């Protein structure tokens, strides 16, 4: 995954400039229909029934962590989005983009279908 400009700045300020960073107590996975970019400016999906989902991560090993449980998004009630990217955000609505990545291939969702990320499938690596 890629780090957002927001998180890059927060980490540099926190580790090198002694400027406090408010660590989020909960993080959420968001689905995008366009690349959010480092600036966090992509298009988050708005299909009927959509909401960001809470994600929990394992303790890191050598700079790598992954989601500990399945992440189940609500089924599409209306709309037919094609999901191209995912992002980790620090709030249920609004908030800041922390990490983002493209999907290996776009996922077209239809009414009644849901987007699922199985445990261990979402990996964040700091190198």
Tally of alpha and pi helices: 1
Using the CA coordinates, give the radius of gyration: 15 Å
Estimate the global geometry from the Cα principal axes.
globular
Low-confidence stretches: none
Task: Give an account of the 3D structure.
Helices cover 9% and strands 32% of the residues. The protein is mainly beta and 127 residues long. It has one domain. The strands form 3 sheets. Strands 1-7-6-2-3 form a 5-stranded antiparallel β-sheet. Strand 6 (82-89) and strand 7 (97-108) form a beta hairpin. The radius of gyration is 15 Å and the shape is globular.
Summary keywords:
single chain, about 130 residues, mainly beta, five-stranded antiparallel sheet, 1 helix
Compact description:
With 127 residues, this protein is mostly beta strands.
Topology:
Elements lengths: L1 E2 L1 H12 L10 E6 L20 E3 L8 E3 L4 E2 L9 E8 L7 E12 L7 E2 L5 E3 L2
Antiparallel strand pairs: 1-7, 2-3, 2-6, 4-9, 5-8, 6-7
